[in-house]
């Protein structure tokens, strides 16, 4: 997984960012791919005031790669610009989650817990807080790629988690739940279940 980040979480890129990667399997370079630039840090809470928050693009899943090239252009690029390479499997490897099964009696689908996708709880500084009554729910889609296998889903989620915490400076993954293209539901933020 790859992203582009910069020092000021409030700044925008003001240009374009593209990467291409060399496949670790075939040795071939991919076509140039652009990043989604409308990625914003958390809007509320103590995480917003953290000094180590960084601005950035949406992370882009590229699969097993052994080379990367980046081209970032713009009239005035933000300070502290860097390309973040995220290896979601650099820690202890967990077994791949089972696909989602039949819904429970209450109609809730099976949810792969954080332990099922291999969340590294040691990088979360503080537990998240939740309100007691929900009045609205927002569904956000990741506009990256569907060019992955169902078996890679847990690695992608670990990559997003590491990106949010280590690259962007957030306290936790930014989503309560994540659903892959195969229909598997994964627990995101701790306690969201």
Number of helices: 2
SSE order, as H and E? EEEEEEEHHEE
Intertermini distance: 26 Å
Unreliable spans are 91-106
Task: Describe the fold and architecture.
The chain has helices spanning 114-117, 153-167; strands at residues 2-6, 15-23, 33-34, 55-56, 65-74, 82-85, 111-112, 177-179, 185-187. The longest helix has 15 residues, at 153-167. The protein has 193 residues and is mostly beta strands. The chain has 2 helices and 9 strands. Helix content is 10%, strand content 21%. The chain has one domain (2-187). The protein is globular and about 45 Å long. It has a 3-stranded antiparallel sheet with strand order 4-1-6, with no helix packed on it. 28% of the residues are buried.
Secondary-structure map:
Elements lengths: L1 E5 L8 E9 L9 E2 L20 E2 L8 E10 L7 E4 L25 E2 L1 H4 L35 H15 L9 E3 L5 E3 L6
Parallel strand pairs: 7-9
Antiparallel strand pairs: 1-4, 1-6, 2-3, 2-5, 8-9
């Amino acid at each position: 997984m790859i992203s582009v980040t910069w020092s000021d979480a409030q700044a925008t890129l003001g240009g374009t960012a593209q990467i291409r990667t060399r496949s670790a399997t075939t040795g071939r370079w991919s076509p140039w791919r652009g990043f989604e630039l409308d990625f914003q840090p958390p809007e509320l809470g103590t995480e917003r005031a953290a000094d180590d928050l960084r601005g950035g693009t949406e992370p882009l899943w590229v699969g097993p790669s052994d080379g990367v090239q980046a081209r970032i252009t713009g009239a005035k690029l933000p300070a502290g610009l860097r390309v973040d390479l995220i290896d979601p499997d650099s820690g202890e490897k967990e077994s791949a989650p089972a696909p989602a099964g039949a819904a429970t009696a209450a109609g809730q689908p099976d949810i792969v817990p954080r332990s099922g996708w291999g969340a590294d709880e040691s990088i979360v500084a503080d537990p998240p807080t939740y309100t007691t009554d929900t009045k609205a729910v927002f569904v956000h889609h990741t506009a990256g790629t569907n060019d992955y296998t169902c078996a890679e889903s847990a690695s992608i989620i670990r990559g997003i988690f590491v990106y949010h915490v280590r690259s962007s400076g957030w306290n936790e993954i930014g989503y309560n739940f994540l659903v892959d293209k195969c229909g598997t539901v994964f627990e995101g933020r701790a306690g969201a279940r």
